[in-house]
Structures are given as C-alpha cells and as structure tokens.
Specification:
Shape: globular
Radius of gyration: 19 Å
Oligomer: single chain
Structural class: alpha/beta
Strand content: 5-15%
Helix content: 40-55%
Strand order of the largest sheet: 3-2-1-4-5-6
Number of strands: 6
Order of helices and strands: HEHEHEHEHEHEHHHH
Length: 205
C-alpha cells in the first residue's frame, strides 16, 4: 500500500516588500514584471518565459542559476530578448526572501516542459499572483485541484487580466492552496498514513 502526500507550504508566509524590491531591481512603478522563479536549465523552458514577457512588453526576471551547461545559452537568450531582463538576485535583494520576488512581480511564469512538482505553482497562489504555466504532467494534476491558471502560450487573456485584475481569481487560487497544500495539515496526514501496527510498534528493536 502507498500514499502520495504532495509538497506542503507555509500558507501563512508574510507578504513581501513590493516597492523596495522593484526599486532594487530597477523596475519602474508602472512597468510590468514577469517572474520566473526557477533555475535556468533546458526543461525550465526559458525561451517561452521570455517570449511571453516580450509579448506583454514586460521586464523578465529569472531568479535561479544556470546549470547543466546552460550558461552560454542563457546569456544568448537574455541578450537577444529585446526586453529588459534580470538574472539572479541583484544587490539590494535577498534570495532567502522569496516572498519579495512574488510581491514585486505582476505575473509568475512556470513554462517548464517537465517538473517533479513545480513549487511556484503553489507559491504563486499563496502570494496571490496570476500564473502562466506550461504543459507538464504534474501541472495538470495540480490544476485539477481547482486552480485557475493561464496558458503560457496564450498572451491575450493574460494581457486582459493584467489590464483589469480580478481579485476573485487570486483569492480562489489561494483558497485551493490552503485547502490542499497547507503545511499545518501535514502532521495529521503523516500520523494517519505512517501509523504502525501495534505488534510492530512494540517490537524491542
């Protein structure tokens, strides 16, 4: 017998510092910021994230390091983006404060072609940010819980939402995250799934 317990998150995480973070990034008050809070490797599909930001006339920010020999390709992609781009955590920002990145963003993008889970999918909901997501199997499983996300390859609905945000969508997504991925619920679920038979529990080992 097996039980699957999905990743859990602190749904009571503090709000980040939007204005201070955007100032440190050099992003103006009326400028759109698209955040990709991932590493830079092939399966994270950086080109799709950049392409969406370009269509939205936004600044593109990818926070994670280039790995698996992706350094040169990332540099080429960012240099040829045709929009302002940011890589990593510039001076004045703190990589231990992911809440600041979400607070600064207007849109979160997770264009991955494959993920084991995809934490930004849940984090974006907790921090009340719209998400544009790629097509990967676990993402479809997460969406089935009731999330309302955008297709990373369909910029028009995203542009409409950014022009006139619907707070109900963001609150509904947050409610789904609290209902299904709340860290506070984990001890009870572990207790129910990992309880040992009485005879085994009393073994002198």
């Amino acid at each position: 017998a097996a039980a699957v317990l999905p990743n859990r998150f602190d749904v009571r995480a503090p709000e980040g510092q939007r204005d201070a973070t955007r100032a440190a990034l050099g992003v103006a008050a009326g400028e759109r910021l698209v955040l990709q809070p991932t590493r830079a490797i092939p399966r994270k599909n950086v080109p799709a994230g950049i392409a969406l930001a370009r269509k939205l006339r936004a600044t593109y920010w990818i926070t994670g390091a280039a790995e698996l020999g992706y350094d040169d390709e990332l540099v080429a992609l960012l240099d040829g983006a045709g929009i302002p781009t940011i890589h990593g955590w510039p001076e004045g920002t703190d990589p231990d404060r992911i809440e600041d990145a979400y607070a600064a963003a207007d849109l979160v993008v997770l264009p991955s072609t494959w993920e084991g889970f995809g934490n930004p999918a849940i984090e974006s909901a907790i921090y009340r940010r719209p998400l544009a997501i790629g097509s990967y199997p676990v993402g479809a499983e997460l969406r089935a819980r009731g999330f309302r996300w955008f297709d990373v390859h369909a910029p028009v609905p995203i542009a409409h939402f950014l022009a006139a945000p619907d707070s109900r969508v963001l609150e509904d997504n947050r409610a789904v995250a609290v209902r299904h991925f709340n860290l506070d619920d984990l001890p009870t679920e572990l207790e129910g799934n990992l309880s040992l038979p009485f005879s085994w529990a009393r073994h002198p080992w």
